[in-house]
Fold:
Amino acid sequence: MLADVDATVLENRRLSEHYSVLVLDAPPIAAVTQPGQFVMLKPAQGSDPLLRRPFSVFEILRGPAGEPAAISILNKRAGVGTALLYDVEPGTTIRCLGPLGKPFEAVRPPAEAWMVAGGVGLAPFVTLATRLEELGTPATLFYGARTASELYYVELFEALGVRTVLSTEDGTRGVRGRVTAPLRDTLSATPDTTDIRLYACGPTPMMRAVARLAADHRRPCDVSLEQVMGCGLGGCYSCVVLTTLPGGTPHFVRSCIEGPVFDARHLVWEALEG
Amino acid sequence: MLADVDATVLENRRLSEHYSVLVLDAPPIAAVTQPGQFVMLKPAQGSDPLLRRPFSVFEILRGPAGEPAAISILNKRAGVGTALLYDVEPGTTIRCLGPLGKPFEAVRPPAEAWMVAGGVGLAPFVTLATRLEELGTPATLFYGARTASELYYVELFEALGVRTVLSTEDGTRGVRGRVTAPLRDTLSATPDTTDIRLYACGPTPMMRAVARLAADHRRPCDVSLEQVMGCGLGGCYSCVVLTTLPGGTPHFVRSCIEGPVFDARHLVWEALEG
Amino acid sequence: MDLSVSIGSLRLANPLIAASGCFGYGVEYAGAVDLAALGAVAVKGLFLAAREGHPPPRIVETPSGMLNAIGLQGIGVHRFVAERLPELRRHGAVVIVNICGTTIDEYVELARILSDAEGVAALELNISCPNIKEGGITFGCSLTGTHAVVSAVRKVTRLPVIPKLTPNVTDVASFARAAEEAGADAVSLVNTFLAMAIDVETRRPRLSNIVGGLSGPAIRPIAVRMVYECRQAVRLPIIGMGGIANTTDVLEFLIAGATAVQIGTANFVDPLLWSGVLEGLRAYMERHRIGAIGELTGSLDTSRREHAWISS
Amino acid sequence: MDLSVSIGSLRLANPLIAASGCFGYGVEYAGAVDLAALGAVAVKGLFLAAREGHPPPRIVETPSGMLNAIGLQGIGVHRFVAERLPELRRHGAVVIVNICGTTIDEYVELARILSDAEGVAALELNISCPNIKEGGITFGCSLTGTHAVVSAVRKVTRLPVIPKLTPNVTDVASFARAAEEAGADAVSLVNTFLAMAIDVETRRPRLSNIVGGLSGPAIRPIAVRMVYECRQAVRLPIIGMGGIANTTDVLEFLIAGATAVQIGTANFVDPLLWSGVLEGLRAYMERHRIGAIGELTGSLDTSRREHAWISS
Ligand SMILES: Cc1cc2nc3c(=O)[nH]c(=O)nc-3n(C[C@H](O)[C@H](O)[C@H](O)COP(=O)(O)OP(=O)(O)OC[C@H]3O[C@@H](n4cnc5c(N)ncnc54)[C@H](O)[C@@H]3O)c2cc1C
Ligand SMILES: Cc1cc2nc3c(=O)[nH]c(=O)nc-3n(C[C@H](O)[C@H](O)[C@H](O)COP(=O)(O)OP(=O)(O)OC[C@H]3O[C@@H](n4cnc5c(N)ncnc54)[C@H](O)[C@@H]3O)c2cc1C
Ligand SMILES: Cc1cc2nc3c(=O)[nH]c(=O)nc-3n(C[C@H](O)[C@H](O)[C@H](O)COP(=O)(O)O)c2cc1C
Ligand SMILES: Cc1cc2nc3c(=O)[nH]c(=O)nc-3n(C[C@H](O)[C@H](O)[C@H](O)COP(=O)(O)O)c2cc1C
Ligand code: FES
Ligand code: FES
Structure:
């Protein structure tokens, strides 16, 4: 199942100064990746930087016969490793380990799936939307970014039959403001009888807000967290998040193997940084 | 004079599995480099590998108006840094510090210049041959390699009016055997009245043999050494070679600033590794 | 070609051991790595009781290294014996249990419990974790403390006892000697170097615990030197570690004086490295006509080349 | 914006000092770097007499670091005073002379000679070079030795006296304390970590001297921790170093507790880095509204964030 591939970079599409989509030749990983799973990429040869970086599998790309052939990564420059990946030229090889982590569980119709993405938090939702389409589950994407030019791949989601609700902080596209505003409004306008599951990925404050809205409206909500990860396999205990079961004591669990997807109700949100 | 340039790689011509010629956009260095001088290149971003590597300036390349515009490096894969440079793609930038070191002193006619190069030891001789041509000094290049396909740029030297005497260890081109064999024969066949200066660069055993031949025939001989260099500027004292003046006591001198070119008679050859 | 090595009464099929704290309880890796093909697995440091460890951030990357201050989060020895050990046994792993205490009695109690459990191959005494204030490191930084812990544990177990030494001392060889005198079967070194990193924008430490332990390739040259020093000082087998990432690094430790090695941080970067490293060792032994890997241990040739031409 | 700092009676225009042994005698760099623009130049370690040092190989690269065993090749104090010092003066350099001896008398003699020379701003006592067997490090690894050297030199000079501490000890802060008690004006730390590298093909050490000193970014997190520890222990100004390569690294040392810093290995990689680092400091101070760089020294905020939701 788990593979460590010396993946050739097939393409590195710069979407903007900060975002790029890196296409990696990694058939064994493409073949088995479930929605929301991630890979660990080694951003450079040598030992500086030393550790791999976790990235959601963005797309699973298929070869001529429809076979899973490559994966793509939606990469946002955040520091040294993501900057190196942004600069990488096709032909380079990058070590790619995966797939890792617990996947999203896609709900089945008649339930509806509402995805909430902030910025690069869009990354895990293409694979989820694909699964939802297969299942025939009605899907909505609430997607927010700073500005219109940073709303990527909206058409891809629409092609997968996803209703999209967009927002930008500067109002250049969709609703002006945070993505949580249209989410709140839509939640309020939806009858309790509609069975909805929320899925959220984005900056911690956004996910915290979504989790609160979900709780207020008594909707189940899965969030995909982005903790610093040393290994991605449960070896180092670096990636822990504080969880608690109703009535239980808070407990650190490893988000690489018990997550990155968590039931929002099980997280101690005050303990999450950001 | 000294410049540290973020040089763009204009070209990286792979000559073989082991050799490449790296063209670097470095006008301030190209403008002032003297024959046999070197540059220090940083083979990768980050700190692994940490140190720069010394490389002879191979060619000085000129722009449309004849102005010095770029330099090239004849790079031979020896370890991690040279392998990274071999793999580098055009468009990448590489930090390049130079020019450094004491240059070759080109003799003037009627004296003759005999250059002796082994393998990548060819590197410092294009700049020297160019200077010799300017001075009108008759020049010969004794050039040895393992095999015919590793004899590079012979035509370039011929175009500079240099007589070439080639040798290969496997006999596929020129004399079969070491480059020192034709050198010995030619030295023996040349009358004492001809004023000759030898210039040698290559593996230490080759240079040692050339130095011995030069001493036997009472010919002045300059060698360009390749010591491990931490800084290239006289700061670290890593690059020392043992030198001795006639009657003096042996003394370690820094080959980056007192060399890399040395009078062969001043070196304690037994103390050199290789 | 003989890759096996002996650590006291324990015979390992090969010298490669997964380092404590860098391989979970081993079972996490069972799907990806053949645990039975490793020389041994040193499991995450165990206290008697379960512990939550430090809040995140628990790691920071540094040049060719990383800092960690996990704080020994763990399930405690009882759950380990009940839940993890049987699974490790099923996978055929040779299990070295890394134990931590705040008092000598705790080490003794842990040793007793684990000696009675089925499937424990050896005890590694963690007296060198820089990330917790109580106990452990206090013993590891004092010769009498080291001697006391080792001899107390020695009395209650027949399992090989392997104190793990800290590099944060002036003379690590004297600690190896103290361990030998106290009846240890081997020593392992090095644990991590006490270190820290600061976020200059917030002027706060990057780790919640302020300081942490430095591991990874950055420390390798210091660790090799320490193994070499201990080799001169004791006859005990040495388990060497610190920054090992490939076959060459393993060989460096063996030649410096190690009988076996542990790989920690590199396993994070390259979790499937084990079989390649083993193959590399075989290729090296073939190339150098070495029949048994033990021949490499301490085989460093330090005879000076002649430098008659210069005095100093 | 005030970038100046005080080391005892010595006022430096800025906190950036070229590290001893990494900048030759300074004069080598005069063509490339404006020596007068540096806070100071710490020149290569000087003995009374000239020395040839160790045979090559003298350096080896390691992950994010390098080992050196130069063996303190040098021209001796007399030639330094006669030939190099006047040139340094001409270039307007603030000169810190790093001195090494095998006996206390030698340190004293060096201090006397240099106190009489014109153009010496301070004495850095190298009691921490790991590359020579005699003297130096013996003092640096013993509290009484450190105290003895510092107080002996203190008696014969009015120049600021700055013992340079070795990191190869269990408790570096106690050495800073010993230095303070003996009358030092500042301490500088760290010197290099004793380390080694082995060529596995030949099974020989990569350095002719077998062991050498590790420097460069690899050691930075340990050096920062040591500066932080010393800051808690003494009131003396601390000159911090170890792996500093850019503005952020300088800030890390200042915030940890250093008053000034030295840059060694990074100068090999990037000899023209000085003005950029200085500019970076200015930009940081502007961004954070810091009027005097001294405000940063020891300003690490270690107040724990609230973690009420978990006990351990
Ligand atoms: C499961 C998972 C999926 C992710 N998917 C994506 C994705 O699809 N696209 C994408 O661009 N990013 C994704 N991230 C975040 C990405 O891993 C980090 O941005 C990246 O590791 C930062 O590396 P760097 O070298 O650029 O930054 P560094 O220079 O190492 O650090 C810069 C900043 O990033 C933070 N950071 C460092 N490591 C991590 C980490 N492992 N996770 C989160 N933050 C980190 C640091 O704390 C620091 O604030 C994901 C993270 C996780 C855990
Ligand atoms: C003045 C000078 C001019 C040079 N010109 C050229 C040139 O034009 N083309 C070219 O291909 N090479 C040249 N070299 C040699 C080149 O610098 C080394 O091959 C290179 O530094 C090796 O780096 P690496 O990372 O590939 O090897 P590493 O992985 O660092 O080491 C591999 C081997 O190379 C040796 N080595 C390491 N550093 C040096 C060094 N600085 N000098 C010599 N050997 C070293 C090591 O001892 C080891 O045996 C020159 C060296 C000097 C001193
Ligand atoms: C995240 C992490 C956790 C560790 N936990 C332990 C531990 O529980 N017990 C222990 O003895 N050593 C522990 N160590 C130290 C390692 O076992 C090893 O001694 C050290 O990391 C050096 O080896 P390396 O450079 O190969 O990682 C830990 C190291 C890391 C990086
Ligand atoms: C090649 C080299 C030579 C050195 N020589 C000396 C010396 O003569 N005296 C001294 O006190 N420190 C010497 N050092 C130590 C440095 O001054 C400095 O303390 C150490 O390298 C850590 O800083 P860095 O990581 O910035 O290099 C030397 C270091 C190197 C790399
Ligand atoms: S990233 Fe290592 S345990 Fe989760
Ligand atoms: S390379 Fe540093 S002194 Fe010559």
In short: Residues 303 and 309 of chain D are 17 Å apart (CA to CA). Residues B 229-232, 234-239, 254, 256 surround FE2/S2 (inorganic) cluster (ligand 6) (CB under 6 Å).
